Amino acid sequence: FVLLFDEYYTDLYRMTEAERWMARAQRFVFMGTSFSVNITNIALRFALTNEAEIDVVDPNPIDLGLEHVEYHRMSAQDYVAMMIGNA
Fold first, then answer.
1. Which residues 6+ apart lie within 8 Å of 47 measured at CB?
2. In a 10 Å sphere around its CB, with 0-12 CB exposed, 13-18 middle and 19+ buried, how is residue 76 labelled?
3. Which end of the chain is less congested by CB atoms within 10 angstroms, N or C?
4. 8-state DSSP, 8
5. pTM of the predicted model as reported, rounded to 2 decimal places
6. Residue 54 lies in a domain
7. pLDDT, tens digit (0-9, with 9 covering 90-100), for 17-35
């Protein structure tokens, strides 16, 4: 898991490294986001370019209007517990 916040994107925050990781990622999990900050838009763009699996985790998720997005109407805590149980 990689946690990204909306900050000024410089290498102080290792943004170049984060972009390299996102460029190779095959699964993106967005937790509790309104998709109104830039970093989530950057990550979503990488996910679409990569044709990666996209999961949105939120009790009341934003409908992105995109195909191949799996919505999980639950808290992040419940999602992580579910994923650990599937490991």
1. 22, 25, 28, 54
2. middle
3. C
4. -
5. 0.84
6. yes
7. 989 999 999 999 999 888 8
Position 3 in a domain: no
Residue 17 is which amino acid? E
Q: How many domains does the chain have?
A: 1
What pLDDT is stored for residue 38 in this prediction? Answer: 83
Query: Six-digit token pair at 4?
Result: 């990204």
Residue 51 to residue 55: CA distance in whole angstroms: 13
Of 37, 35, 38, 39, which Cα lies nearest the Cα of 66?
Answer: 35
DSSP sequence for 22-85? HHH-SEEEEES--S-SHHHHHHHHHHHHHT-EEEEE-SS------TTEEEE-S-HHHHHHHHHH
Range of the domain at 61: 12-85
